[in-house]
Amino acid sequence: MYKNGLKRAIDFLIVLCALLIIWPILLIIIxxxxxxxxxxxxxxxxxxxxxxxxxxxxxxxxxxxxERDAEGNLLPDDVRLTKIGKIVRSLSIDExxxxxxxxxxxMALVGPRPLLIKYLPLYSEEQYRRHxxxxxxxxxxxxx
Length: 144
Hints:
Number of strands: 4
Oligomer: single chain
Structural class: alpha+beta
Strand order of the largest sheet: 1-2
Strand content: 5-15%
Helix content: 40-55%
Order of helices and strands: HEEHHHEHEH
């Protein structure tokens, strides 16, 4: 299913249909986050290793402000987390922009979760096999 592109086609069609249905909800979340983040943006991207360990930008909703102390260091996460951000995270809505990554082909709906780049040198040969497929928004364990 993976080698002949069927999984990719199914993922693309499901995500396209889902986005057509949920776009009004996403728009409301974007508006709320815009004001909660004081105009500092609503999306957060983070470099993650994907299929064949190619680095891509995973997209998420930005749930924290960019507030800094007098020395210019970011304040602790619990201080920067907005009220709206707390709700968005608790409902796992912050992951929904990754549907765009699925449309782009960087991710799949189901697959190994993309870990941070700093873990790449720590993988065993068997663990590194996770990069033979596209990373997923949700993992196999969560689906079963």
